[in-house]
Amino acid sequence: MKYHIVTYGCQMNVHESEKIAGILRQSGYTEESSIEEADVIVFNTCCIRENAENHAFGNIGALKKLKRNKRGLVIAVGGCMAQEAGKAALLKEKFPFIDVMFGTHNLGELGSLIERKKAQKKALISVPEERKETEDGVEPVRTSFPNAWVNIIYGCNNFCTYCIVPYVRGRERSRKKEDVLAEVRSLVKEGYREITLLGQNVNSYRDGDVAFPELLDAVASVEGDFRVRFMTSHPKDFSPELVAVMKKHKKICKLLHLPAQSGSNRILVAMNRRYTREKYLENVALLRREIPDCELTTDLIVGFPTETEEEFEETLSLVREADFASAFTFIYSPRTGTKAAEMEGRIPDEVSKNRITRLIALVNEQTRKKSAGYVGKEIEILCEDYDEKKGLYLGRDEFGRMGYFASEKDPLGKFVTLKVDRANGISLYGIAITKEV
User: Which of 41, 238, 253, 287 could form a disulfide with 398 if both were Cys (CB 3.0 to 4.6 A apart)?
Assistant: First the structure.
């Protein structure tokens, strides 16, 4: 029996797909790279952006013929889109050939749902409103060596007016500190060289008296040759204690992802972000004062309801002032059930497209300048993969910049010293010397 998983969305979903793979392995399935040869196809969906939903709809619909022609094929749909209010019914109406639907709250039940479906003809829809800790004890099938994702907190309490996450992921729930540390120790022992702590808002982490800076300090104190990343940090919870821990440990990458979303105070209020432009820039100043070489990345939304040209210009000026290393940029996408979806003052598509084009051009200009500054320098990167098209190995430095190089020996999973001789946009190229045999 073979499975194939299709994943949409962020690193949280990538790691959840690793858990889904672990669940299916426990049920006796093996991975199949070809969707046509799989006995079970699982779609792990995302509803944060409209384009992710559209891709999922298109790919699920494309399986109608395969489902009709392949006896015994099980198609399962889960994740955020299935959990969103009303979407399970819509999916079933639109694609009646779906066999199993499960939500974000009962991921661990997937194996039993598939077996129950096989024993009966009727489709199974199980999308509980409250979370069931059904994936505890599931050993994920890690797919990103030498990188590993470690959840430290689930859900979100912030209710930004544009965001569906609190409705599909539920309220914040932190893992026990010792459980997180035990997982990190195990991963380091297995040879993983980069650990990324994950949460919708890692700065909200709380296990009794242990807040996120204390957890991060403990993770970075684990013995071994590895480095630590974390995401995502909400600016309203940014703290001097977090900066102090980042400064203390060489293992912690000097890169902070701090979503600004907008440079306009009025739009930030409308988004319910609970910080001001001035406070955001104070945080940036503190970070750069304490850790001068630290880089900053962000998320930015244009075309939020009622956004004026002047307010968009404030976002451009924030990008210049904060000097981001890179940014994820989005046109506002209304999500049914959120407050922003009911707001008046929708921005015309042509205006939003013009603004995103200008924003991307500015971000790319800054990124290229930073890349050019690497030329002639030696940096340490962790080799993560091999690019078949380029015929080169690749990896990232602690600031997230991708470096490409040739090597006669296999450097995967090893730290490499790269002498950068040229830059192309966000990518670096050079000659590498491995640190390890």
Answer: 253
How many CB atoms are located within 10 Å of the residue 406 CB? 12
Give residues with Cβ within 8 angstroms of 280, minimum separation 6.
Answer: 235, 258, 260, 318, 322
Q: Is the dihedral of CA 338, 344, 350, 356 positive or negative?
A: negative
In tens, the pLDDT along 20-30 reads 999 999 999 99
How far apart CA 319 and CA 348 sit, in angstroms, is 23
Q: Which residue from 200, 150, 140 is spatially nearest to 170, judged by alpha carbons?
A: 200
Of 252, 183, 178, 189, residue with least CA distance to 215: 178
In this structure, the number of other CB atoms found within 10 A of the CB of residue 210 comes to 17
In the numeric block, which tokens belong to residue 368? 């290229």
**What distance in Å separates the CA atoms of residue 421 and residue 376, rounded to the nearest whole number?**
6
- Which element (helix H / strand E) includes 187? helix 177-189
Q: How many CB atoms lie within 10 A of CB 186?
A: 11
- Using DSSP's 3-state secondary structure scheme, residue 69 falls into helix
Whether omega for the bond prior to residue 411 falls within 30 degrees of 0, making it cis, is no
Residue 417's CB is within 10 A of a number of other CB atoms, namely 14
Q: Which two tokens stand for residue 266?
A: 């009025």
Q: What confidence score (pLDDT) does residue 437 get?
A: 38
Proportion of the chain above pLDDT 90, given as a percent: 86
pLDDT 10s digits, 155-195: 999 999 999 999 999 999 999 999 999 999 999 999 999 99
Token output for 365:
């200009």
pLDDT on residue 275 = 98
* CA 202 to centroid of chain Cα atoms: 12
Q: What percent of the chain has pLDDT over 70?
A: 98
| DSSP label of 123 | -
| Ordered DSSP codes for 294-337 | -EEEEEEEE--TT--HHHHHHHHHHHHHHT-SEEEEEE----TT
What integer is the mean pLDDT of 82-86? Answer: 90
Q: Which pair of structure tokens corresponds to residue 267?
A: 């739009």
